[in-house]
Amino acid sequence: MKSDIVYPLNIGPVHPAFKEPIKFTFRIEGEQVAGVDIDFGYTHRGIEKIALERNYIQIIYLLERVCGICSFSHPLAYCLAIEDVAEIQVPDRARYIRTIIGELERLHSHLLWTGIAAHEIGFDTLFMYTWNIREKVLDCLEEFTGNRINYGMLTIGGVRRDITPENSETITRMLEYYMELYDRASEILLDDLTLRARTEGIGILSREQAEMFCAVGPTARGSGLLKDVRIDYPVNAYYDIPWLNPISPRDIGKEPIGDVYDRMAVRVLEIKQSLNVIQFCMENLPEGDINSGEGAVKIINKLKKLEGEGIGRYEAPRGEVCHYVILDNQEHPIQLKVKAPTYSNGFTWIPMLTNIEIADIPIVIASIDPCVACADRMTFIRKDGAKERYSWDYLHQKSIQKYKRSANQ
Amino acid sequence: MLGMVYKVIEQIFSKKSTNCFPMKYIPNNTTQYLNQGIIHPPIVVKEGFRGRLEYDFQSCTGCGLCSKVCPANAIELYSAEINSKKTKRVVIYLTRCTFCKECVDICPRNSITITKSFCMADYKKYGNSLVVGSEYRQQFEIKDHADVE
Amino acid sequence: MIMILAIALIMTIVGLILGLLLKGIDRKIAAYFQSRIGPPLLQPVYDIIKLMYKQTIIPVTAVRWLFSSAPVIALASSALLLLYITIPYIFYIFEINTTLQGDLIVVLYCILIPSIAMVTGAFSSGSPYAAIGAQREMVILMSIELPIAVVIISVAWHAADSMADPFAISSLFEYPLWHNAGAFGVLGGILLFFAMVLVLPAEMSRVPFDQAEAETELAEGISVEYSGKLLAFILLTDAFKALALSMLVVILFFPYTLSQLFGISFQMYGHTLTPFVEIVFLLFKIIVIYSFGITFIRVVMARLKISQVARFFLFAITAISIIGLILIMLDPNMRII
Fold it and tell me: Is the ipTM of this complex over 0.90?
């Protein structure tokens, strides 16, 4: 249904389709989308700035709050970065426990995403179903980390709580529950008639575009890019898993074209992959310490005397998380940079959102599993409400100035 | 293709997943709700759940380590006078607490312990039920002007 | 005349309560399908009572008189639709002889009026979401118009050989669609029933055909700007329509009473209770139709796109209903000539 009249349609900053504030301005022709303008900056929290005023242990809990769902990936990337600077060796058992929690998080994140995607296209029964089965993994996490999300499990140089025999029994039972459920659930998720009618062939991100926009995580893998930080730059126990491969829609015999269905298929397949990884880790869980045994104060005192920069990368459920820290003989880092997956994936919205119908907007936006608050880096508040656009050259000049100044000090 | 059809027909006969609110009406203050009329027993919390903090005033030495590691700055140190000796003690603001258990782990005298209680709703943000140790503070705090600065 | 007015008044009030109750049952059954407990049965009634207390806000961009009169027109016309379908049946159950017969063609028009009123209100609200919702509602209305007309014509066609007026509602009770139907007639009737059941959710704006109110796309679409009493009127319109449309399916396809089916009658202390039992049976039929035609379909499907809906109704459902019509015409037992 095309017409000659082009009119604007604002979706956001607050809209039932979004869980977080973000603004899209569409140009609509009839029911077709002709163009889109994306406006971030409604939920900037200044976490990077707050982190510079906290000590190294406090930052872990602060970074858990960067993203509610990736509440293990962000502090893990930070801990990896600090361990990189301080050259701390993580005990084997801690590496495996980190892997298990990370995969449990991936499991519940993907189930949550499936529910949200189903809700966006009005399939509330599927939404209720996936969130219902997600309770099992959350119960499991609650039992051995103490919380459903924001686990508080990490510390620099290891983890804080061990997996007791009762916990491992719970995890085994949970694995059995999901293994039994998986075939049927994946049939509902991947073969349902109306679900396919709504997800196939829309929001297409070609392989070239995915490469160009540096897409990460399931968004990139849905377009056929075999890109997974767990395999490319393995941390934790991923070294030890020989069969781990990046998921692609080819695994269910479908040539990836990068539509919403492909991204969904990747996530559904990753649920199975996570289950296998957890099973592997539970079977091969080594004995030993779970951290260095030093208290928080000792760790802070040790890091106080250090200088240098470190980088930590980890594959969060939504894509690559990258944390960069600079230490300078102080009780707190002098620089912390968080790169959340939506930071890369947000740009892929532009090719995805052109030439679709209005009805596809929510599902296409949700298909990259956006975490808007993670990606918000700056916000302008002016009395007159006017907006300025800063060019690349201007920002580049500004950053050179800033670092020259700090170098001279 | 029709997986959902079978699933919903199965679900209509299976046990429902809803957890009912334990009471018929919402009480004013859930910290004491367990004494009042309960119609649905609440869900049992899991082993290892981190809930409301408890503070042992007697064994605390006032070292202040807990307030140093607290990520939310929820633990406040104050000057107290106990047995005519000047020392420090803490109060914990549960409205700010993130229940990370860092203070419990670091405390050298195990003065702070964690319980499984999760009922922490109240009308007053800084009411006595939500500031752990506030009753001791009223009793022992000394207003030292040099300290306030 | 006065008796009809009194009956109309009573039936409006009873229909209001029953319609809201039907929505409550719908929500409860949907919750059970989704493995939830669901809201209390009277939740729609509580919603209405709450909305009646709330402030009604009229946006500055709206055409004030049109915006506030549209829900009232929708409510009145949906009440009219309910009465128009139900009164002949009530008379038939109570065995009252009357000249009031009801006309299927009028029903066809009456179904449209509440939706048209809602579309007018949405366009006059000045909200872009409401405008898109209203456009979609118009597309859906136009696509389902032909299937409904074909169903009604086929039902009238088979009654044409009788002495009664084929388009009168009351003649449906004497000559139901399945009345001396052959194999073709039964098959055609099933196809027509299938088409009509799929038209129901589109007429009621329910998933998978709720594009006009799509929550995640348009934030309730055509009713996005309504609040307070006007929103309560819209919800009441919905309740009336829910009852009236399931009633329409019942009288088109299953007008049988218990006494017709089993030849039983109920007596107590010398008075006949048969009509009241028949009304309970009628409500049972309505609930069954509603929970299969609307509740079940809405829990097992995702919302379709408007282009898919238009294609679905204009081609698939229209074709099915026309095949049904042809089959009924081919049935030798139903031949008029």
Answer: no
